[in-house]
Design brief:
Layout: E1 2-3, E2 7-10, E3 13-16, E4 24-25, E5 36-39, E6 42-45, E7 50-51, E8 53-58, E9 72-77, H1 91-94, E10 102-103, H2 106-116, E11 120-123, H3 132-144, E12 148-153, H4 159-165, E13 171-177, H5 182-189, H6 195-206, E14 210-217, H7 225-238, E15 245-249, H8 264-277, E16 282-285, E17 295-296, E18 303-308, E19 311-315
Parallel strand pairs: 9-11, 11-12, 12-13, 13-14, 14-15, 15-16
Antiparallel strand pairs: 1-6, 2-3, 3-4, 5-6, 7-10, 8-9, 17-18, 18-19
Helix pairs in contact: 2-3, 7-8
Bound molecules: iron/sulfur cluster (SF4).
Length: 334
């Protein structure tokens, strides 16, 4: 049991200020995530340091295509989530009440990363906001060792939380489902409002956190072209045309095993539309064999990074510039 960060007392209840649900939690009760609970007027987190998954993954798997391409990450997670997606591929660890996991300290995580020669820690698999205290302390320590920190997040995080961790966070991938369609979020994910995700994106941008965005396209129920178009326009208007944008194929899982995987055709259609609206780097992911797996120079069309799935075949960049025309590509690398 570990005292939580980011909460306020409201009478004899507690207002959690970590994620955009802002649960008002009565004495002896838990918030929506079932991880944070009010014990005698103090908010505690039950999953602190309980690492339920730890693996070494290529950063492309998160997905990040423009942040240290080809790097390995030490990827960690704890139990819990603030969403209830009916199609969650990690439902065994995101939707369980059992606070399982082996106990680690932030120093342990840094030591493991250093021993393996890994320079990036990814807080992923479940929602990192829901193991915020451990992610915060680990990322703060990581900075002292010149290790980068990345969140793979649903974006349902408050501005207070971003303000706290922003200076230690190097990059985020914010993962939309069904292009952020409000009705879809309500019906299939138990999320009342998508607006906080857009606010969080602006906040990450304000704190100079490198941003990539993904969008899971679900056949039949979460594949409206107009929603994809709207999301792309929002990115163009509020962030930047050079934000990498990943269109991800759906995998049948959890309570949605009756829906087929997304076709390559629809993902490429969405990527083509994103490109026509003006996004420079649309990608197709979770399906191999698309021309949208590669990075091309926006100016001259030269192929600068070629990938197969999450593997890099060739990288042809001079610093972060196109070797053919010298145009700057929005890539962070050594
Ligand atoms: S993290 Fe979110 S879901 Fe969990 S208690 Fe806080 S506001 Fe509620």
């Amino acid at each position: 049991m570990h005292e939580a960060m980011l909460w306020l007392k409201e009478g004899n209840k507690i207002r959690c200020e970590l994620c955009a649900r802002r649960c008002l939690i009565p004495e002896g009760k838990e918030g929506f995530c079932r991880v944070r609970f009010n014990n005698n007027g103090t908010l505690y987190t039950k999953n602190y340091g309980k690492i339920v998954s730890m693996d070494v993954d290529p950063i492309e798997k998160k997905p990040f295509y423009h942040f240290y391409p080809g790097a390995q990450t030490l990827s960690i997670s704890s139990v819990g989530c603030n969403f209830k997606c009916q199609f969650c591929i990690n439902c065994d660890i995101s939707q369980t009440d059992k606070m399982s996991g082996k106990t680690y300290s932030p120093d342990d995580i840094i030591k493991i990363a250093n021993d393996k020669g890994i320079k990036i820690i990814a807080y992923t698999y479940t929602e990192p906001t829901i193991f915020f205290e451990f992610a915060y302390r680990t990322s703060r320590l990581a900075k002292r060792y010149n290790i980068k920190n990345v969140f793979v997040t649903n974006g349902y995080i408050t501005s207070e939380a971003i303000k706290k961790i922003g200076k230690y966070l190097d990059a985020v991938t914010v993962d939309f489902k069904a292009s952020g369609n409000t009705e879809f979020y309500k019906k299939y994910m138990s999320v009342p409002d998508v607006q906080p995700i857009f606010t969080a994106l602006k906040n990450f941008n304000k704190h100079r956190v490198f941003i990539e965005i993904s969008n899971l396209v679900i056949p039949g129920i979460g594949d409206k072209p107009e929603d994809n178009h709207k999301l792309v326009e929002w990115i163009m208007d509020n962030l930047d045309s050079s934000i990498p944008y990943h269109l991800l194929g759906f995998t049948p899982s959890f309570q949605m095993t009756d829906i087929p995987p997304t076709s390559l055709e629809i993902l490429e259609k969405f990527a083509t539309d994103a490109q026509q609206v003006g996004l420079r780097y649309p990608y197709v992911g979770n399906i191999w064999g698309s021309r949208f797996e590669n990075t091309y120079c926006y100016n001259c069309g030269q192929s600068v990074i070629e990938r197969t799935g999450t593997f890099i075949n060739t990288m042809n960049l001079e610093g972060n510039k196109c070797p053919n025309c010298g145009f700057g590509i929005n890539v962070i690398k050594d």
